[in-house]
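HUMAN: Mind making up another protein with tokenized structure?

ASSISTANT:
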Amino acid sequence: MSDQQPSGRRADRSGAPQGGGRRAESGRNRKIDVVVVLAMILPTVVVVAVAVNEDDSLPASTLRPPTSAPLTDAAVVCPGAAVPGDVSLTRSPGVQGGRVEVRTGTTRLDAGSPVDVVPDRVATVQEDSAPVEISGHDAAAPGLVAGRGGPTAPAECRPPAFDEWFVGLGAAARNSSELELVNPDGGRAIVDIALYGPHGPVKSEDLRGITVGPHEVSTFDLSKTIPRRVDLAAHVTVTQGRVVTTFRHTIDLLGQSRVTTDYRLSQAQPQTENLLLGVPDSGPRRLFVMNPGQDELRAQVQIVTKDATFTPEGAKDIVVGPEEQGWVNLDSYLPKDAMKDSLGLLVTSSEPAAVGVRTLVGDDVAQFSSLPRIESDAVAVLPTGEKRLVLGDAERTGVVHVTSTDASGKVLDTQDVQVGAGRGSEVDLPAEAVAVTVESRTTPVAGEVLVSGPASDPGLGVVRLRDAEVAAEVPVVRPD
């Protein structure tokens, strides 16, 4: 037999491996090794990646809401009075109370005599017109409530706020708003005021970076600082320290020798549902809608009654452009008699909005703003005059317990008021009552007291119900 190896294709298919075949086999082995290695490594990589990703998001996933702790430091400021009057002080139920520090002054708050403030009684600080700061510490801090002013222009006394909105402001000679900033602390505060009109933001450099010194009062007349013939909205942001912001709005009724002043009420943040109770059913009522967003806003006005909330037939949407304040006259916007027997308005919008109403009751200017929801017992200090309490914004059917008292704490009247979702409720209060306590155990509500002036000085005042501060929120800090 011949020892010669077969040649050609047959030789390629022989069992004896050739050099090229060995290299190909080696390549296949390496490919298999890579796949095996990847099959082993990839799950580990994925696990590590997930672990890293979870670690990156750990702060968000482990963040907890602030815890509640007893309030040990509280301040409430009553702005300078549109109508001269003493400041009345009381507390929400269930707190101990104690002596509070009082400061007063037109440009600087100077210390005065301390006042003992306890629940169920009303104490008085005698001060005609200047701003008044009331501060409490330890047991004297929780539940502090104050009020001042006459029946047609009661001032809203409140704690400092860091971010809020005001609508329906004026900067003209006969329709003007005065800004007042009160710093209740021992360190300086810095405030930014952004203004908006019917065509967007309004340049207001004089209202940027306002510095308010310790226990100082700063005022700005918009008709002089930034004169405009149009109505304005304001966004107030406190960037350092604490401040209580107030806008007093004055209308000079041309040819009537009558000047009327009231307070423009604040709104903590824009919302898609804004409830305004107590709006009169007739008269020159101007509804303002501020759109702080970057998209066009469409708002719809609904009527709130004791039975239901409904959209009046033929009422068109109110369209407001980005960063603009729009307005409508309700007298022409709503069908005739649409608000007959109504208790207020519900303004719903496609984007969050700040909303308010300015009107005249007789020759008196009256202001209405979006109402905050009451989550706990609320106490309001009231001026003298005929009064009625209006409630709404209940989540479900329930009963609200209303107690009216005089200055000594004597109970003048108690009533249980039925509330329900999608409707309002109202009840008359004793004219001599100087404080009212509203307790709702079954559902959050919103409400305000409407105070009528005497026959010699007709008009309407608004006192909003607000939760009194009884606890402090302490953030939960996670160590790195």
About this structure: Residues 274-362 form a domain with the Hypothetical Protein Tm1070; Chain: A fold (CATH 2.60.290.11). The radius of gyration is 33 Å. Helices lie at 8-12, 19-56, 58-62, 222-225, 330-333.
